[in-house]
Amino acid sequence: MLAASFAATIKRTLFSQEEIARTIESLATRIAADYARKPLLLLGVLKGALYVTVDLARAISRVPDGPSSVGIDYLVVSSYGNSSRSSGEVRMLKDTHQRIAGKNVLVVEDIVDNGLTLSYLQSMLRDREPESLRSCVLLDKPYRRLVPVDVEYIGLTAPDAFVVGYGLDYQEKYRNLPFVAQLRAGVISE
Ligand code: IMP
Predict the structure, then answer these.
(1) Considering only 72-76, 81-85, 105-109, which range has the smallest mean pLDDT?
(2) Residue 150 among the catalytic residues
């Protein structure tokens, strides 16, 4: 049961909990095969990729003959401030715990929209000389790109709406919804 405070502000569910779970499983199957017998480091981009990163890590471990090991690390960036529009300015709030040089790094993001956040992260991480660098996003809004960005693993294409849930927030709310939803008009101030 959804709390009344959430139900009043949500317009519709875009991706159900089950659809997200199936998508994560299928991403995990591809990733596990591509990194078979190799060590893999998942680098979750917080806070949005909180759920995707842990669910993906667990799903990868359920695939037989996958990576030889799966490490998890996080970095925290802020690109939206408190609005629903990207400022274009990406701020690194917390860097990774470990050195990534020589590692097979897979950046895990909740959503790629205009591409500025992921392209900034990719160029910053590439400078640190990982063995390999790929990216995985749960949701994609390909028609919104301002900069081109390579994403090897894409889960679902999101409609042209500001979405929340499963880690995605609006002004730090709604992250805890187990599904991805669109908010009602009037909830979001642009
Ligand atoms: P980009 O730099 O525009 O590609 O946006 C990347 C970041 O903006 C994501 O990691 C999200 O945190 C945030 N973001 C983009 N679109 C949405 C949305 O529809 N809802 C919530 N957050 C979003």
Answers:
(1) 81-85
(2) no
**Token digits of residue 93:** 């709030």
Tell me if the pTM is above 0.90.
yes
Whose tokens are 């037989």? That residue is 64
Pocket, ligand 1, Cβ cutoff 6 A:
48, 79-80, 86, 109-118, 162-164, 168
d(CA 143, CA 13): 21
Q: Whose CA is nearest to atom 20 of ligand 1?
A: 163
Which one of the listed residues 113, 127, 140, 160 is annotated catalytic?
113
Strand order in the sheet with 10-15: 10-15, 180-183, 163-164
H or E, element range at 104: strand 104-112
The ligand 1 atom nearest the CA atom of 90: 2
Nearest to 43 by CA among 139, 153, 121, 141: 121
CA dihedral 109, 115, 121, 127 (to 10 degrees): 130
Tokens 């842990």 belong to 54
